[in-house]
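INFO  loader      accepted 1 record
INFO  loader      residues=171
INFO  predictor   begin
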Amino acid sequence: MKIEVKDVCKSFRKKQVLDNVNYTFISGNIYGLSGINGIGKSVLLKIICGLYKPSSGCVLYDGVKINQDLVIKSNVRALIDTPYFFPELTETNNLHNAINALRDTVTSNKEKLTNKINDDDINKALDIVNLTCEKDKLYGDYSLGMKQKLGIAQVIMENPEVIILDEPTVG
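INFO  predictor   done
INFO  writer      dumping tokens
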């Protein structure tokens, strides 16, 4: 897959955050954005994910323009900002809820979500982020780092084509 950011600008009120950003991301590679606070890294990631519309310019996924209707692509998963789960549920119950919420969101955007996520996928994701020993612990009792790990597990459990992580090492 190829993601192209073409002449992307983004303003909030009268403050321009992004000014003619151009970049091409090719699958199979890992990219990192660095810069001072407030420079627009998170805003750019939200535009690439389809969560924000650019003020001008566009984002193309394999030549197809996104960001017109803020459609969440079924092959893209992201962790942007702080993950939120229900504090009174365990990690496995929270991930099952996330699957159902994702299925509802994608269905409402007229994209097909396959029913391919199962308990084995959840367990594998939890193993990757080293949370398998915390299965019975309630999310509300998690440390900041454990909450971040559960957010990453949610992103990787479906083995998406594109993974976007904003500040994944927080906590």
